[in-house]
Amino acid sequence: MDSLPYAWGGPIGRAVLKDRPEDFRVDEVLPESPAGEGEHLWLTVEKTGQNTAWLARQLSRWANLPLRAVSYAGLKDRHAVTTQTFSLHLPGRADPVQPLVIDGVRVLSQDRHPRKLKTGQLVGNRFTIRLRQFDGDADALTERWHTLVEQGLPNYFGLQRFGSGGANLERARQWFRGEAKLPRGQQSIHLSAVRSYLFNTLLARRVEDGTWNRLLPGDFAQFREGQGGFLCEQPGPDDLDRLADGRLSPTASLPGDRTGETTAIDDWESTVLADEQEWLEGLSARRMQRARRKTRVYPEGGELSWDAGDPVFRFFLPAGSYATMALREAVTLEEDRHP
């Protein structure tokens, strides 16, 4: 993460991230609420210091269900206070009678719904993050934060995507080379790590070139909300107006096999990734199709307040964007290492 170029001149201070779980709060935002009836029990909990996958296993035991009957939209930080919804498939069964008693877990609500909660079924997350031991200019930090809120920041993938010490990438490399096998259930996360690394490589070059927030001929532009967009063969005045006010952003590839005509941007991306053929061939061999991701993201509703000299950030990010990558544009983060 430290080697990725900054868009706004680099951090202007240092601070400690996640000194304690309550310093990093994440509230999940889903696209729908339970209807009050159906085969699936939607259970919303607040958890402190607990891993999402571990909690899913505890819920399967609590409800006497196979693990596959418990689902959630995505993983949440362990060293944090997070609100998250799980769905439990209970066809023809009543809700569990016994109370859910798990250390660090509090039930906020539960209700029935006709459909299960699917992986990726997430609008985004609201963050409240307190940094401690801030060493820097408070006024400069406030100004930088306003810049990020108003003008956006590079939509890099965070380190979490690659596993501890980049382990997911290393396992993917061994898998691609035939030196190791991956269970089917683990293949997706490793393919995602490879594509995330390649996307970061493309975005880093655009940050260096000053084009991460500009529309170039042949760019695929996406609207601020959702994944809809269009091929921008030659940006016109309306495109540039929407780019300037944040309604449109450029994209870069999540590499895979391409369809359709090749654009100038496709050729440019191929040049940038010329030394990454092992990754590209591995993705192609597994029939991955090229997708797109915005190069720019906004910390929506961004606020910065101060508490006893500590900066406290409040903002929303769409699903797939990383709070740590937003904060790094303003502050060098020294993350407390928990066991």
TrEMBL record:
It holds the Pfam family TruD. The keyword Isomerase applies. GO terms for molecular function: RNA binding; tRNA pseudouridine(13) synthase activity. The keyword Isomerase applies. GO terms for biological process: tRNA pseudouridine synthesis. It is an enzyme of class 5 (isomerase). Its EC number is 5.4.99.27. Residues 152-298 form the TRUD domain. It comes from the Bacteria. It catalyses: uridine(13) in tRNA = pseudouridine(13) in tRNA. PANTHER family: TRNA PSEUDOURIDINE SYNTHASE D. Responsible for synthesis of pseudouridine from uracil-13 in transfer RNAs. This is tRNA pseudouridine synthase D. It comes from Saccharospirillum salsuginis. The lineage of its organism: Bacteria, Pseudomonadati, Pseudomonadota, Gammaproteobacteria, Oceanospirillales. The gene is truD.
